[in-house]
Amino acid sequence: DTEVTQTPKHLVMGMTNKKSLKCEQHMGHRAMYWYKQKAKKPPELMFVYSYEKLSINESVPSRFSPECPNSSLLNLHLHALQPEDSALYLCAAGLKENTEAFFGQGTRLTVV
Amino acid sequence: ILNVEQSPQSLHVQEGDSTNFTCSFPSSNFYALHWYRWETAKSPEALFVMTLNGDEKKKGRISATLNTKEGYSYLYIKGSQPEDSATYLCAFNQAGTALIFGKGTTLSVSS
Question: Does A40 reach chain B within 8 Å, measured CB to CB?
């Protein structure tokens, strides 16, 4: 069982849709991450939030918009995505930025 | 660009075999090396976090070693079981940076 919960588990969206991915943790961890993982490749860092402030944005296109409304919740807002954005999106939480991270099960996103 | 290399990419062993994988990472400004176990349809599970040169960690039949001066870590599995089948991810970070992952080693254990 993971203490990081991601919803939805699966999402299919059109290129003109707006959707959001949600990540929730109640471990009191103050670092939260979004990673993107495509088949047969390692997870790639997208964003890092530290104490609810965006601390790292790995040059991610603006069609991905992260939001951290409180210390337990991390959202990823999606708009005008491309088919190549189809991937597994993993959320993780850690005590602070450079400690071990606990992962959610991911959201499998398909853009059609 | 920080790069983490893992080898082999995949491995198939028989039940009872012992095996090991390698993770190579930049040795400069080292902070921590992490090993994760990732089973299909589950989330990556942290196995070990190592920070000191010469660190050795053990959890059951799985152990890991760390050499920060030459930039490598080994993960060992003794007496592999079918339930050990998974992808083993290595991740590295420098002080103040988030985890950078390798591509993983996929282990398949046949009974």
Answer: yes
